[in-house]
Design a protein that fits this description.
By secondary structure, the chain is α/β, with parallel strands linked by helices. The chain is built from 13 helices and twelve strands. It has a seven-stranded mixed beta sheet with strand order 7-6-8-9-10-11-12, with helices on both faces. Strands 2-1-3-4-5 form a five-stranded parallel beta sheet.
Length: 326
């Protein structure tokens, strides 16, 4: 009986060995570079919107995607090194914002796909050939800096009709000159004298603030730039101390105590950036993906701040607000 069982076992082994062994299919894990020209604290809501977009499209960190995060903390000299590092890691696509960040990645690689989630004017910046046909390895979403900067001044004037002198914090970085021209055009139409205060580094704020006081500025206007976004606390404190009504370029300013902000819905832009990433990972070429514009905008007003500095927001402006902080 034992001999019969041993023969049967031997036969079973031979049968098993005669069938080919198939390896389990390996799961593709994509690698995404996430390069931000500011700090992590400034872009928390945007990152979460991007992650949510990826999850809705079937991507899970640690399973089928790995995200390599890089934050420059507002130090532009770090962009090139961080971009080059992401390329060395052989990421499948880089997600970023700001013209300088895109150029840093382009310098590191002419082939790695790049998706920008929020760039002022990618055509004027030379990042893409046109919105409809970007060409090359770069595409994404624009935040309409020129158009919105003029609109911010209009809203500021509408809220405070007696304003005649406005100090503008800006930079020539990227399309800064074009943006400033748009604001100057809007200022002329509104009968407002615009004081130009260019900010290149964080060291320029003190002299800019002194100039604003010296010229008796009645209000403050800022543009969406990394150096300005990273120094929002200083700017907010300056405006509050001098009781200046101020209009800001991103809602994080009003959430931190600033008076007003008007901007695209950045969470929506970053959420939509995930769609670009998905298409590229599935084989689409950036050159064939048109650059999209924002479809949602937010006017945020901080009534608590208005009361603290003795300002009254007209009812017609309050009625237009998408969010009011009380």
């Amino acid at each position: 009986m034992s001999r019969k069982i041993s023969h049967m076992a031997f036969f079973a082994v031979l049968v098993a060995l005669s069938f080919p062994v198939y390896a389990q299919p390996t799961r593709t894990v994509y690698k995404i570079g996430y390069l931000v020209p500011t700090s992590q604290s400034v872009s928390v809501s945007r990152l979460e919107a991007f992650r949510r977009g990826l999850r809705e499209l079937g991507y899970t960190e640690g399973k089928n995607i790995i995200i390599e995060y890089r934050y420059t903390e507002g130090k532009p000299d770090r962009l090139n090194d961080m971009a080059a590092e992401l390329i060395r890691l052989k990421v499948d696509v880089v997600v970023t914002s700001s013209s300088a960040s895109v150029r840093a990645v382009k310098k590191a690689s002419a082939t790695t796909p790049v998706v920008f989630a929020a760039v002022g004017d990618p055509v004027a910046s030379g990042l893409v050939a046109s919105l409809a046909k970007p060409g090359g390895n770069i595409t994404g979403l624009t935040m309409l800096s020129q158009e919105l900067s003029g609109k911010r001044l209009e809203l500021l004037k509408e809220a405070f009709p007696k304003l005649t002198r406005v100090a503008a914090l800006w930079s020539s970085e990227g399309t800064g000159l074009e943006v400033m021209k748009a604001v100057q055009t809007a200022a002329q139409g509104l009968g407002v004298k615009l004081q130009s205060l260019e900010i290149r580094t964080a060291n320029d704020f003190d002299s800019a603030f002194e100039a604003a006081i010296r010229e008796r500025a009645q209000s403050l206007l800022t543009h969406p730039l990394p150096v300005i976004n990273l120094n929002r606390e200083r700017i907010i404190q300056f405006a509050a101390k001098n009781r200046l009504p101020a209009m800001y370029p991103i809602p994080e300013f009003t959430d931190a105590g600033g008076l007003m902000s008007y901007a695209p819905n950045y969470a929506d832009l970053y959420h939509r950036a995930a769609v670009y990433v998905d298409k590229i990972l599935k084989g689409a070429k950036p050159a064939d993906l048109p650059v999209e514009q924002p479809t949602k905008f937010e006017l945020v007003i901080n009534l608590k701040t208005a009361k603290q500095i003795g300002l009254t927001i007209p009812p017609n402006v309050l009625a237009r607000a998408d969010r009011v902080i009380k």
